[in-house]
Amino acid sequence: MKDSCVWAEIDLSALERNFKFIKRQISPGVKILGVVKSDAYGHGLLPISRRLLKLGVDYLGVGNVEEAILLREDLNSKIPILILGNILPQQAGSIAKYDLTQALCNMEIANCLNREAKRRKKTIKIHLKVDTGMGRVGIWHEDALKFIRNLKKLNFLKLEGVFTHLSCADTDRSFTDLQIRLFRKLLKKLKDEKFQIKFQHAANSAGLIGFKNSHFNLVRPGLLIYGACPKDKFIKRFDLKPVLNLKAKVIFVKRVPPGRSISYGRSYTTTENTKIATLPFGYAHGYPRSLSNKAKVLIKGKRFPIVGRVCMDQTMVDIGREMPVRIGEEAVLIGRQGKELIRVEELARLAETIPYELLCSIGSGVNRFYKS
Ligand SMILES: *Cc1c(COP(=O)(O)O)cnc(C)c1O
């Protein structure tokens, strides 16, 4: 960390706090599937998963087979791992080999999985993915019952779960309620036909905090675990602790008289004597160019504006005339310094995107350091 100019500090005690917060939101019988896809939203798949395991997470959710295998090989645990994304037929063997659970929504893959399970004398657990209004992968809710009846013939598959995904639990109450109603209707039919399915689930982070009736007996939080909130309105109410802190060291400072333009495109011109500090980060580190002339950074516990365009790996900050700032001074782009806090939600709003996108793009390109 000492030698890095730009780095991310991943605070695992914050992760613990957020996990405990989630526990308080759900009823005692409800289990938690921690979503760690996309390298744990840029926080690092393995360290995050190891900590979640220690905290007693019941299930882990990944995006693809590769992530699932990494987890299975590293964790030394039988924790169930659900692959949320679809797979190709040729990946069915890995599902069997590594004892993974597959989200399923087509018969061709079901047949492949069944064949692979039979070959290895195992059963493969599957969760049926039902589309109640996401309009992405998943089998339409009105076709799900028939599909499940057909699955019965595949003796080496165990239908362990049935789930749906909410498309707008952060923005549209009535559509979300409709999705939940459609899902319930299916569950009722399954019950009438005496299907016994261990897990029913629907809630992502927004569902978890906004719709108690979406919890069923398993919830699938992602963003909340990382201390960000899918809905700005809830940030104050819930006191989630950001896990990722993005920091950089000042690499250059100079005095600038009035009337000088700063950075590419001359989008900013100084109006008085000031000092401009350069920080060695930019869009190559996942800090969006759209934050040019909008975002603030923290130096010595105060907020200072980014001026001019964010470059590939350099960004300028107006620190005012008086501040004694040296090369090597620590600046915070996301996270806390003194009493001030810059949340990823704030940057997402300014960049006109969502915290998910920022976290994923920042995480991968920047050295990460973990503190517990
Ligand atoms: C990514 C994902 C989640 C987690 O969503 P958050 O909004 O981050 O809580 C839950 N379920 C599925 C199916 C997902 O793909």
Which structural class best describes the helix and strand composition? Answer: alpha/beta
- The number of helical segments is 12
The largest beta-sheet arranges its strands as: 2-3-4-5-6-8-9-10
Number of strands: 21
Q: How far is the first residue's CA from the last residue's CA?
A: 15 Å
* Biggest sheet layout: 8 strands, parallel, barrel
* Unreliable segments of 5+ consecutive residues: none
Mean pLDDT comes to 97
User: What percentage of residues falls in helices of 4 or more residues?
Assistant: 25-40%
Instruction: Label the overall shape.
Output: elongated
Using only C-alpha atoms, the radius of gyration works out to 24 Å
Mind sketching the topology for me?
Layout lengths: L5 E6 H14 L5 E5 L1 H6 L2 H10 L4 E4 L2 H11 L5 E3 L8 H6 L3 E4 L2 H13 L4 E8 L7 E2 L3 H8 L5 E8 L8 H20 L6 E5 L1 H6 L7 E2 L15 H4 L5 E6 L2 E5 L4 E2 L5 E2 L4 E6 L16 E4 L2 E4 L9 E4 L11 E8 L2 E3 L1 H7 L4 H11 L1 E5 L1
Parallel strand pairs: 1-21, 2-3, 2-10, 3-4, 4-5, 5-6, 6-7, 6-8, 8-9, 9-10
Antiparallel strand pairs: 1-11, 11-19, 12-15, 13-14, 15-18, 16-17, 16-19, 19-20
Helix pairs in contact: 3-4, 11-12
Bound molecules: pyridoxal-5'-phosphate (PLP).
Pyridoxal-5'-phosphate binds next to α9.
In short, what is this structure?
By secondary structure, the chain is α/β, with parallel strands linked by helices.
Structural commentary:
With 372 residues, the protein is α/β, with parallel strands linked by helices. It is built from twelve helices and 21 strands. It has helices spanning 12-25, 37-42, 45-54, 65-75, 92-97, 107-119, 144-151, 173-192, 205-210, 235-238, 344-350, 355-365, and strands at residues 6-11, 31-35, 59-62, 81-83, 101-104, 124-131, 139-140, 157-164, 199-203, 218-219, 244-249, 252-256, 261-262, 268-269, 274-279, 296-299, 302-305, 315-318, 330-337, 340-342, 367-371. The strands form four sheets. It has an eight-stranded parallel barrel with strand order 2-3-4-5-6-8-9-10, surrounded by four helices. The longest helix is centred in the middle third of the chain and has 20 residues, at 173-192. The radius of gyration is 24 Å and the shape is elongated. The two termini are 15 Å apart. It binds pyridoxal-5'-phosphate.
